[in-house]
TrEMBL record:
<dbReference type="GO" id="GO:0032589">
    <property type="term" value="C:neuron projection membrane"/>
</dbReference>
<dbReference type="InterPro" id="IPR036179">
    <property type="entry name" value="Ig-like_dom_sf"/>
</dbReference>
<protein>
    <recommendedName>
        <fullName>Ig-like domain-containing protein</fullName>
    </recommendedName>
</protein>
<dbReference type="InterPro" id="IPR003599">
    <property type="entry name" value="Ig_sub"/>
</dbReference>
<dbReference type="InterPro" id="IPR037448">
    <property type="entry name" value="Zig-8"/>
</dbReference>
<dbReference type="InterPro" id="IPR007110">
    <property type="entry name" value="Ig-like_dom"/>
</dbReference>
<dbReference type="Pfam" id="PF13927">
    <property type="entry name" value="Ig_3"/>
</dbReference>
<dbReference type="GO" id="GO:0050808">
    <property type="term" value="P:synapse organization"/>
</dbReference>
<dbReference type="InterPro" id="IPR013783">
    <property type="entry name" value="Ig-like_fold"/>
</dbReference>
<feature type="domain" description="Ig-like">
    <location>
        <begin position="19"/>
        <end position="117"/>
    </location>
</feature>
Amino acid sequence: MLRTFAGRLTWSRILSAAPEVMIVDEEGRPLHDKYYEAESTIQLSCIVRHVAMTSSVVSWLHGDRMLNYDTTRGGISVKTDLMEEGANSSLSVARVNKTDSGNYTCSISPTEFATVTVHVLNGEFIRMRIVHRDGSSFITCSNRYNIIG
């Protein structure tokens, strides 16, 4: 921004943080993949920061289908708490099956969104690499999905 006052030229810089949208785990870390057992409930959390929510709405999508107002499937719940500079939104999808697998997106605009891939498993074993904080790792197979976050 450029301002002039009685022959003086002054510059001022306006800093504003870019909007931030993240789907996070229970500890607030960004998620990329999440695993659920068939017949369980998908529970996803989205945090939105650095945006005035008076002009934005948090939308949840499965693929390209909006979930916020979906009354055909049933068992879908969206709760959004608005704050001065953002929002916390949660999505629950009850009694999931394989057709509920796929990409889930939390969006405030076509350019500001976060996506997580949800995998609904029917008792299959999954192979995963566990990485410890010290950098060591190991490969394991499990049919317990709650250890993946």
